[in-house]
Amino acid sequence: MKKIAVLLSGCGVFDGTEIHEAVLTLLAITRAGAQYQCFAPDITQMHVVNHLTGEVNTDETRNVLVESARIARGEVLNASTLEVSQFDGLVIPGGFGAAKNLSNFATTGSNCHIQPIVENFIREFALAHKPVGFVCISPVMIPNIYGAGAIGTIGTDSETAHAFTEMGGKHKNVQVEDIVVDEVNKIVSTPAYMLATSILEAHIGIEKLVNKVLEMA
């Protein structure tokens, strides 16, 4: 049975992992007959957002690993403990946590860097030539990991696509239900809630992505 690592970035679309995307990822992996293990970095998230009002709570701090445990029902491991040989591939759901906690793309755009623990985590899969699926905004990390010419998508947002290109990546515009595959680097990406207007729309692309990652594994 194939086993897929799932890298989370907190809990909640505005300051962590997009919960629908995470759950759809875990469901798709399980429905395909594979297993998953959630991981998250043990770091402080950029800030805490009130998901009812959209306001930043400046008096509160939260930990990415602790918050990710909410999605994983407590079954989440510290990203620093990864043994890549135990896994066949990786999927990274989106949400602003990918651009605020896993990287700082939200504040620096194409000048962004990836949090060192996270960069090492993803790079282990890349070096082992194991497939990685990037969902929603998380593909902005692709150029920093895989270098110039790596192919991916965030959908059709021109500003984010331009930043992706500035970082050396090759961006492809696609619709919500589609995936983009970089066969050379074993990368799969899909827009999900960068374009989705419903959980069903997000599900279509995510399931295709998971199935392609498993196929490439």
From TrEMBL:
<keyword id="KW-0456">Lyase</keyword>
<dbReference type="GO" id="GO:0016829">
    <property type="term" value="F:lyase activity"/>
</dbReference>
<protein>
    <recommendedName>
        <fullName>Glyoxalase</fullName>
    </recommendedName>
</protein>
<comment type="similarity">
    <text>Belongs to the peptidase C56 family.</text>
</comment>
<dbReference type="InterPro" id="IPR026041">
    <property type="entry name" value="ElbB"/>
</dbReference>
<dbReference type="InterPro" id="IPR029062">
    <property type="entry name" value="Class_I_gatase-like"/>
</dbReference>
<comment type="function">
    <text>Displays glyoxalase activity, catalyzing the conversion of glyoxal to glycolate.</text>
</comment>
